[in-house]
Amino acid sequence: INRKFNVLEKAETAILDLCAAPGGWTQIAARTAPSHVLIVAVDILPMRNFKTTPNVTTIIGDITTDKCRSDIRHVIHHNQVDVVLHDGAPNVGAEYGKDAYEQNELALMALKTAVSHLKQNGTFVTKVYRSRDYASYLWVLQQLFDHVQAVKPAASRPQSAEIFIVATCFKAPRKIDPKLLDPKHVFETV
Predict the structure, then answer these.
(1) Predicted model pTM
(2) Catalytic residue numbers?
């Protein structure tokens, strides 16, 4: 994804990696982004030790909570990041429809966190599952970003329903209708 879109190299101030454990995206960001760029990795689980990487800060927290968004704001003082990455996944295995809904709900919560911290023209990269909720999620992204593109990286198994979405040029609206980031509204069934 980064080879195609070069989102990490273009970062100027900060990168936020949500649901970051075990830390793969964080490692790539630390190697690829300019050395002055702050990288904040957030996960509910502890991550690898990044103490030898001075521009990486880790936060243990649940991205679906206001407390976590506050913790991120505390670390990113200017409250503006260039790139938000989300490669998280819920525990899966129950039933595909339920798994897909939970994945897309988590991606929507990641978007809610992203819009709290992303600066105008910023980039959001997230993993979703193709399902009946996929079109609704794309529509939400199209309201907030100028360009939205689905990508299936070579590392993702062909039979897997996971797909990544790269949303660029965040519009940074002054006010966002809370329904736009509410799974009960976005994914409601008729």
Answers:
(1) 0.92
(2) 127
